Amino acid sequence: VEKFIAILGKGASIETKNPRILLGRISAAVVIRSKIPICLEEYTSIRSLGRFILRSADISVAAGVVTKIIA
Q1: Left if phi > 0, otherwise alpha if psi is -120 to 50, otherwise beta: which for 57?
Q2: Nearby residues of 15 by Cβ (< 8 Å), 6 or more positions away
Q3: Residue 54's pLDDT is what?
Q4: Are the CB atoms for 23 and 15 separated by under 8 Å?
Q5: Inter-CA distances, 32 with 8, 10, 11, 47, 65, Å
Q6: Which residues, 6 or more positions from 30, have their beta carbon under 8 angstroms from its beta carbon?
Q7: For the CA atoms of the chain, what is the radius of gyration?
Q8: What predicted TM-score, i.e. pTM, was given to this entire model?
């Protein structure tokens, strides 16, 4: 995770911009950068390639959908 952009409320409205931390069960807009190439597409284009799960030590720490790809 490179940057936390905002914490999202109901209906994807922005509640907090540039949060320092994210707690459990919170929806947020984030920027994720990968060291290796991965196959992703925007969720609106191809739903199966627009979902992701972040794992650390066999524990799922985050899940979400791809809203925008920054090259």
Answers
A1: left
A2: 6, 7, 8, 9
A3: 93
A4: no
A5: 17, 22, 22, 18, 12
A6: 1, 2, 3, 4, 5, 22
A7: 13
A8: 0.81
Per-position pLDDT tens, the chain of length 71: 899 999 999 988 999 999 999 998 999 999 999 999 999 999 999 999 999 999 999 999 999 999 999 87
Q: What is the DSSP string of the chain?
A: --EEEEEE-GGG-EEEES-S---TT-EEEEE---SS------TTT-GGGSEEEEEETTEEEEEEE------
**Structure tokens that stand for 69 in this block:** 């790809």
The letter for the amino acid at 22 is: L
The per-residue pLDDT for 71 is: 77
